[in-house]
Amino acid sequence: MDEVKDMEAAKSVLAGYRASIDNIDAALIHMLAERFRCTKAVGLLKATHGLPPADPSREAQQIERLRKLAHDAHLDPDFAEKFLNFVVKEVIRHHEQIAAENGG
């Protein structure tokens, strides 16, 4: 009988964790959408003024900053860097597309 109660309690706790994970995933998607709205505006500004789609100096600064933030938050800095590199690669692709559409 105790095993059944323990299993029910575990399932209840698991459901709570999963609800939180679902909320966090939704927030991440909305945050990424907002980030890409901003970077689209940056891409248009760069294209309008003939600036290059990529900015390696800025990217290096961001990697250094996010690695420190990750470390301070007890998140693997290597993971944070890989995630940022993935996002930046997509941003640059968008900027290149915007530049091409605007004659750059």
TrEMBL record:
Its EC number is 5.4.99.5. GO terms for molecular function: chorismate mutase activity. Residues 8-99 form the Chorismate mutase domain. SMART domains: CM_2. Keywords: Isomerase. Pfam families: CM_2 (PF01817). It comes from the Bacteria. GO terms for biological process: chorismate metabolic process; salicylic acid biosynthetic process. InterPro entries: Chorismate_II_sf, Chorismate_mutase-related, CM_bact, CM_dom_sf, CM_II_prokaryot. NCBIfam families: CM_mono_cladeE (TIGR01795), PRK09239.1 (NF006691). PANTHER family: CHORISMATE MUTASE (PTHR38041). This is chorismate mutase. The lineage of its organism: Bacteria, Pseudomonadati, Pseudomonadota, Alphaproteobacteria, Hyphomicrobiales.
